[in-house]
């Protein structure tokens, strides 16, 4: 439908399409133009083809040279003159009667040396023209030096020094071999797991009927596995240290993997699809996935029939597995030989006063059963001492970024293997790492918030998120979520609650085709899609569509742009992978650092038949 | 897909409620659907007997060839079922 | 003649109060009801005996012999005569003329609406052909009453014969002129006439007086002359009867039909209904509504249309595009029901503004775009749509609906098909007209803001502040600003 002068100004770079028939000889006004907001629908319906279409700013005020019908894109051959880019738009807008003909355009785009800026107004009222003096001269007016905005910024940034408020040191112990033995111990680079430990694991949980332990070495990557419920680092705190401080010991080259079914062979917390040949189902080296070459200590837990979809079932499978992990942790804690430490890294939470203050809001699942997360166990990614997010009422819990990296989340989430954030994901969370290490921003914390099932509860928690951000007085916020579905409702609400407080906000989610957002609001202008899959759908490949380094960089840059008053271009209606490619290119052009994109499921081996189908 | 824009309205009844999923009988003998919680948008507490609605198009085959991966998964599942059944029966006999 | 039913409400305002009782003898022209509040006198249109006085009507049993003369009205001034005559706007609105003309236009414009905008109606043109001189005198009386310097007759250019007759009739009077209109609907809408003639677009809430003008229907002008010259009350109406009639679908124009005559009588006079029919419309195809044979005509009735049977949509899902130019939602639903369509979506044109319960178009005849509405229909699952739009909007709908797979029906289809005219779909007529015929002396549109535009000097101020050069120009023409660059 026809648009107003204000809408035309907002959409000045959008295509100019006539909403109705307009006869030759008429001057093109905003009221003659169709609202660009419906172009996607029109293009989808085959009603519109925007090829060769001029921009709104190029046609306003021009005269139509041939009669065109409704929904005609205005092309160069249909107007007497293409209007040039006008920086003086407000002035011209105020004078709609202005004659279009000879050189009405105001071009101040380039500093034309020795050139003349000419404005001609045929007729008008209440015209205001503002010209920065830098552009004019020799006009009998002294040119006053203008304070550069950059200088002012520097003044503001006369900052206090950065301060380390918290740090965690990770000591890495390399494991090259995992064997069974009479006791659980670490001998050099060999990890021994006590034979018969399975029985104790089974005994620890009433619902667990059976537990099988497999050591999966790379040569066994091509074997069948039940659905992968979780991938966990094996780590332990040193001495009395708590999560988020002190020293953490971690085993390199080996991970825990939880899998399982119920007595009837039905996958736990799953609707099929993720079980199968391991190497066909794992997107290697994703933050939450195993790295290629690592050894998996894989439990295959059998739980009581019919409990695979009930809350106690998946929890029991995790708890039983943790009996084994805990015994390894104990062995790890006992190590006294520091020569086994192959690498030490320290994660510091640095507060940077004077820099833009940002917070990361991580939405975690809390709809019930396997849609749950255990928060803040005693040991990294442990079970003991942790509180289930669902029991906490899904309300926001503020943690330190280094607590996140130190394993404060034990993830039970099982639905959507491709977009699920495994426990290991938090351990290597790219957005937290990237933001933590960026000297230009001040990361003050991470807010973990659950996603409840019922809408009223969703809005209850999102309001708390808004209040928390308000109290933190942040300049910017990231909101991330995993997977898609009803969690997008609270995801959108978090963004709204933060945005309405005048805080810049960037949302991150798997969207693409299948995860297209179910709701939206006016603050959801800056979104990063975590999709990596070729077809834009949630496939069965573990961690394929989770947040990666490349997404973190895009989100961080997007937030910086917004915090500094820039604007992010509106999204296209349909998923277009080129948007990401363009952004990545733009960012690497500016930073000078190439961004290497991670591979997707097409890099994995496929059965012959699949290969034929997809190639 | 050829028919993915032919949206039809479907209605169903919640017949099973689990902690992590719900089972839905589609009205008019049109099938049964089991979906994880996050795929259900709820304004009220979930109860058996509540009616639900959604739009869907038709299910189309993506190609003529079965995917061996899924066939193998299916076979594994059936084999396990058989093993478990056998184990159960053996157990029963032992207790006799 | 038998029973005449004269409605007590034939105008905008409250129903009139009867001043006669059952059994009274009345003459043609006898005052039988007076306004209660805003309204206009009602006179007996026939001589006879009052048979009954109900809450809504006075029934008069007409004498077999009807006189040619009538009871004269009285009044000191012309305006009083119009009031006494019970004259109301005969284009359909029914606003009491004496109230409307009680305005000082201070040299402004009387715009005579002779657009006869509704397709198929012809009685206005017939009036011009037969009573041009009296009509022109009516314009002069009204200009005098309202203190207007200009009288402009707005008429569609396609009526070449009538334009020629009018040109002859106004010859020598430089205060009178003719403005030609394109053959589009709704050129006769009051604000469309003002916009076309004076170039001023009024808000839907504004009256033409905001542009120093009064818009008056051409038949009202004639009746005003009759009231002033002949002291004749408003007791008759010119009517077009057309449609599926025995003898063919051509128009039958009946001049000076006594108010209170039934639709059925007039149809019989026109030959009678020819077999199966769809509906009988009282008024024009766009703004009229379905009526019955025993309905009496009033001072505002213009047309009676007998349509062919409706197309059967066989229960298909239809959307209604309601706009100010055509029927309201009730009328559109009525048509949908008669076409056997199930209404599942109702969209309103963006420009249709609701003013005092009625829809008015913000810019009559200039489309605001309809693509979004068509997409909405599609999303709602419509297969067919019924629209009541003007020529321009209909053309826009045709730009998108068929491509979306929506079958388009216009509310006037059954009327236009009955009379063998092309249905409303694509626009082929230009909104602009070639220069008018040379005989018309005062052709060019007057410029209402001329005086202001002629100011020679450009008032402006220029200031330098914060490194910005600010120029403010209050008003001006042909302004040139030049800055040399460094």
TrEMBL record, chain A:
Low complexity bias (residue ranges): 91-100
A single GO molecular function term of this UniProt record: D-proline reductase activity
Region (Disordered): 85-105
Matches recorded under Pfam families: Gly_reductase
NCBIfam families registered for this protein in UniProt: D_pro_red_PrdA (TIGR04480)
Name used for this protein in its record: D-proline reductase (Dithiol) PrdA
Source species of the chain: Lactonifactor longoviformis DSM 17459
Lineage: Bacteria, Bacillati, Bacillota, Clostridia, Eubacteriales
UniProtKB/TrEMBL annotation, chain B:
Protein name per Swiss-Prot or TrEMBL: Uncharacterized protein
Superkingdom of the source species: Bacteria
Species name: Lactonifactor longoviformis DSM 17459
Automatic annotation (TrEMBL), chain C:
Protein name, per record: Proline reductase-associated electron transfer protein PrdC
Domain NADH-ubiquinone oxidoreductase 51kDa subunit FMN-binding span(s) in chain numbering: 83-222
Any GO MF annotation of the entry: electron transfer activity
Segments of skewed composition (Basic and acidic residues): 446-457
NCBIfam families according to UniProt: PR_assoc_PrdC
Organism field: Lactonifactor longoviformis DSM 17459
Pfam families assigned: Complex1_51K (PF01512), RnfC_N (PF13375)
Keywords, comma-separated and alphabetical: 4Fe-4S, Electron transport, Iron, Iron-sulfur, Metal-binding, Repeat, Transport
């Amino acid at each position: 439908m026809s648009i107003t002068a204000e809408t035309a100004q907002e959409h000045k770079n959008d295509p100019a399409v006539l909403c109705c028939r307009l006869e030759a000889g008429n001057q093109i006004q905003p009221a003659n133009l169709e609202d660009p907001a419906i172009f996607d629908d029109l293009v989808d319906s085959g009603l519109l083809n925007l090829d060769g279409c001029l921009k709104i700013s190029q046609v306003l005020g021009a005269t139509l040279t041939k009669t065109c019908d409704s929904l005609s894109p205005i092309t160069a051959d249909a107007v007497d003159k293409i209007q040039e880019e006008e920086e003086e738009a407000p002035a011209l807008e105020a004078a709609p009667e202005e004659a279009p003909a000879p050189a009405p355009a105001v071009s101040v785009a380039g500093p034309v040396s020795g050139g003349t800026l000419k404005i001609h107004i045929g007729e008008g009222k209440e015209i205001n023209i503002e010209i920065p003096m830098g552009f004019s001269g020799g006009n009998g007016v002294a040119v006053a030096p203008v304070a550069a905005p950059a200088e002012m910024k520097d003044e503001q940034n006369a900052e206090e020094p950065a301060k380390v408020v918290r740090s965690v040191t990770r000591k890495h112990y390399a494991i090259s071999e995992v064997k069974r033995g009479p006791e659980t111990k670490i001998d050099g680079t060999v990890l021994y797991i006590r034979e018969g430990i399975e029985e104790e694991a089974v005994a620890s949980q009433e619902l667990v009927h059976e537990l099988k332990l497999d050591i999966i070495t790379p040569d066994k990557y091509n074997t069948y596995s039940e659905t992968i419920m979780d991938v966990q680092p094996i780590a332990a705190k040193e001495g009395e240290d708590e999560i988020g401080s002190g020293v953490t010991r971690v085993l390199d080259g080996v991970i825990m993997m939880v899998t399982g079914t119920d007595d009837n062979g039905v996958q736990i917390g799953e609707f099929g699809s993720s079980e199968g040949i391991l190497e066909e189902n794992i997107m290697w080296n994703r933050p939450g996935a195993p790295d290629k070459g690592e050894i998996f200590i894989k439990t295959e837990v059998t739980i009581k029939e019919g409990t695979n979809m009930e809350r106690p079932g998946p929890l029991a499978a995790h708890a039983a597995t943790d009996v084994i992990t805990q015994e390894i942790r104990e062995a790890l804690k006992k190590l006294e030989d520091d020569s086994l430490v192959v690498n030490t890294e320290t994660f510091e939470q640095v507060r940077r006063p004077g820099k833009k203050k940002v917070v990361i809001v991580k939405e975690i699942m809390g709809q019930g059963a396997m849609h749950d997360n255990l928060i803040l166990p005693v040991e990294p990614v442990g079970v003991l001492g942790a509180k289930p997010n669902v029991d906490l009422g899904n309300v926001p819990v503020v943690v330190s970024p280094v607590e996140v990296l130190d394993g404060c989340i034990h993830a039970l989430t099982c639905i959507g293997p491709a977009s699920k954030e495994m426990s290991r994901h938090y351990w290597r969370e790219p957005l937290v790492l990237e933001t933590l290490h960026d000297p230009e921003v001040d990361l003050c914390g991470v807010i973990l918030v659950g996603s409840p099932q019922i809408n009223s509860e969703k809005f209850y928690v999102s309001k708390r998120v808004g209040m928390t951000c308000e109290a933190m007085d942040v300049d910017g916020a990231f909101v991330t979520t995993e997977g898609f579905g009803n969690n997008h409702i609270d995801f959108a609400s978090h963004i709204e609650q933060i945005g309405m407080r005048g805080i810049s906000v960037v949302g991150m989610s798997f969207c693409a085709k299948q995860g297209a957002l179910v709701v939206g609001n006016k603050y959801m202008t800056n979104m990063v899609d975590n999709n990596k899959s070729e077809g834009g759908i949630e496939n069965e490949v573990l961690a394929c569509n989770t947040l990666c380094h490349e997404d973190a960089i895009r989100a961080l840059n997007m937030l910086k742009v917004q915090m500094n008053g820039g604007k992010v271009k509106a999204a296209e209606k349909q998923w277009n992978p080129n948007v990401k490619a363009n952004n990545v290119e733009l960012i690497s052009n500016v930073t000078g650092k190439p961004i290497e994109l991670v591979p997707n499921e097409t890099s994995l081996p496929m059965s012959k038949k699949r290969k034929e189908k997809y190639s | 897909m050829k028919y993915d824009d032919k949206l039809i309205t479907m209605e169903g009844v919640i017949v099973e409620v689990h902690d992590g999923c719900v089972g839905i009988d589609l009205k008019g003998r049109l099938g049964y659907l089991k979906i994880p919680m996050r795929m259900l948008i709820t304004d009220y507490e979930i109860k058996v007997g509540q009616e639900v609605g959604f739009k869907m198009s038709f299910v189309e085959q993506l190609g003529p060839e079965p995917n061996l991966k899924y066939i193998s998964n299916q076979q594994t599942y059936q084999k396990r079922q058989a093993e478990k059944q056998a184990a159960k029966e053996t157990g029963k006999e032992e207790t006799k | 003649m038998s029973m005449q039913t004269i409605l007590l409400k034939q105008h905008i305002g409250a129903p009139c109060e009867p001043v006669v009782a059952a059994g009274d003898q009345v003459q043609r022209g006898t005052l039988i009801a007076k306004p209660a509040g805003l309204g206009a006198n009602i006179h007996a249109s026939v001589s006879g005996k009052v048979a009954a006085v109900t809450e809504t009507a006075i029934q008069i049993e007409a004498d077999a012999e009807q006189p040619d003369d009538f009871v004269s009205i009285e009044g000191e001034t012309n305006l009083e005569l119009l009031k006494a005559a019970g004259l109301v706007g005969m284009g359909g609105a029914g606003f009491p003329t004496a109230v409307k003309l009680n305005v000082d236009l201070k040299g402004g414009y009387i715009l005579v609406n002779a657009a006869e905008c509704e397709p198929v109606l012809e009685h206005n043109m017939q009036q011009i052909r037969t009573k041009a001189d009296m009509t022109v005198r009516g314009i002069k009386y009204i200009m005098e009453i309202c203190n207007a310097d200009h009288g402009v007759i707005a008429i569609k250019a396609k009526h070449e014969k009538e334009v020629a007759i009018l040109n002859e009739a106004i010859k020598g009077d430089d205060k009178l002129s003719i403005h030609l209109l394109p053959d589009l609907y709704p050129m006769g809408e009051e604000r469309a006439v003002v916009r076309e003639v004076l170039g001023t677009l009024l808000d839907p809430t504004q009256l033409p007086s905001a542009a120093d003008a009064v818009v008056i229907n051409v038949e009202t002008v004639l009746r005003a002359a009759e009231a002033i010259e002949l002291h004749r009350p408003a007791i008759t109406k010119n009517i077009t009867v057309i449609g599926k009639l025995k003898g063919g679908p051509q128009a039958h124009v009946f001049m000076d039909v006594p108010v209170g005559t039934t639709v059925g009588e007039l149809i019989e006079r026109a030959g009678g209904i020819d077999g199966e029919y769809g509906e009988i419309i009282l008024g024009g195809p766009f703004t009229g509504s379905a009526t019955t044979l025993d309905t009496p005509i009033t001072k505002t009735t213009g047309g009676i249309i007998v349509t062919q049977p409706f197309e059967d949509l066989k229960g298909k899902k239809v959307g209604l595009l309601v706009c100010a130019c055509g029927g309201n939602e009730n009328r559109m639903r009525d048509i949908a029901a008669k076409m056997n369509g199930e209404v599942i979506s109702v969209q309103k044109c963006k420009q249709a503004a609701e003013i005092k319960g009625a829809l008015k178009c913000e810019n009559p005849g200039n489309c605001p775009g309809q693509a979004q509405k068509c997409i909405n229909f599609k999303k709602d699952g419509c297969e067919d749509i019924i629209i009541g739009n003007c020529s321009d909007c209909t053309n826009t709908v045709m730009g998108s609906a068929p491509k979306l797979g929506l079958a388009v029906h216009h509310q006037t289809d059954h009327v236009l098909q009955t009379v063998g005219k092309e249905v409303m779909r694509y626009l082929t007529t230009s909104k602009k007209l070639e220069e008018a015929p040379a005989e018309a002396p005062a052709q060019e549109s007057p410029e209402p803001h001329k005086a202001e535009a002629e100011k020679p000097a450009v008032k402006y101020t220029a200031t330098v502040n914060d490194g910005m050069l600010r120029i403010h120009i209050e008003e001006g023409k042909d302004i040139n600003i030049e800055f040399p660059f460094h």
